[in-house]
Amino acid sequence: MSGPLSGVRVVEVASVIAGPLASMWLADQGADVIKIEPVNGGDTTRALASQPELGGMAGLFVNANRGKRSVTVDLGVPEGRDLVLDLCREADVFLQNWRPGAMERAGLDYAAVSAVAPEIVYVSVSGFGPDGPYAHRRAYDPIVQGLTGYVAVQRNPEIPFPDLVRTLVADKATALVVAQAVVAALFVRERGQGGQHIEVPMLDSALAFLFPDAYMARSLLDDPKREVRPTIAQTFRVATTSDGQVITHTGNLGQMHGLFRALGHPEWAEDPRFATPTEIRRNFEVLGPMLAAAFEESVTADLSVALEAEDVPFAPVAGLDDVADDPQVRHNGALSVRTVAPVGRVLEVAHPARFSGTPVQLAPPAPLLGQHTDEVLAELGRTGDEIQALRRTAVIGPKHD
After folding, report:
1. Nearest to 82 by CA among 382, 384, 388, 401
2. Is 248 helix (H, G, I), strand (E, B) or coil?
3. Domains of the chain: residue spans and CATH
4. What is the CA radius of gyration of the chain?
5. pLDDT level of residue 53 (50, 70, 90 thresholds)
6. Residue 399: closest CA among 379, 376, 374, 367
7. Are strands 93-96 and 9-13 parallel, antiparallel or unpaired?
8. Quick check: 123 pLDDT over 70?
């Protein structure tokens, strides 16, 4: 496989989103990712498949596991642990998101893995960190959202009560941190500083992702003019038109006056109440209803043309089924469809980074459970008879047909 991480091998013992999505991005960039899955059932997201005939190829699993090789191993027995340690001898990265203490009990903690692979980059993804008052707790995305402030900042005059971000933002923010940290550790290893252990708590990752804008009015603690005001994003609004919704963003006075013209009210720019940014803020309780009424009289397509002509940033609110038809999405090749057995046609998103010298190609589809067990064990030097013996004792899962 081509890509900037071609030649890098990752052993993943992770499930759901934060760990698997990070390693999928590494696979997109050319890494050989070997996904270790439980013999019975595999990654927990496989259970979301709508019917048994899909072979555990649930949408969430498919979307976070492209480009990997699946190996089923029982990590509860010494023989299974030893197989994974053998894989680690030739690996560059070991990525796990088990609860603190679980890897020690399995004999696959950093001490055990680095003993056989001293140069390895070992990544532990946890909910709250390896120790502390919450370390023992199970962590899921909405729990972390609640603790870090995401839920609180969803509130604005249109949403009077705190609410969740309706996507797995904490999981995905953590995946970004993990992927970047892995590449940084590999880079410093190339400089001769060896392998290391990286701890990535979801709590810390989500907070760091939220912090720049959400805490903009709270971070300068000694500023005498510090004023706790709504965050930038809390001022954003979705406007209702006669046939849909549209989002606009006016970052300066010229754009606001352009919005007035696009809505058919150029005279508003001459109104002293709306002549300057200060006056607009002071009189927004008057202007807000005027804008809402003008939006409601507009047709989305016509308004889009007018906003484009005025160079006002805007976007109609697209449904998930509409995004693939967006002309810029099509132009960028951001989405594509291919046929994947046994599920049929699969809509996939491209890796978003474009490398001029080491281009990224679409990685193979997400694997079936245990699809590559025999292949990977053969690479370890196991004979066919040895693989069958491991299978008879349930150290590895059934042979993939």
Report:
1. 382
2. strand
3. 9-209+333-392 (3.40.50.10540), 239-316 (3.30.1540.10)
4. 26
5. confident
6. 374
7. parallel
8. yes
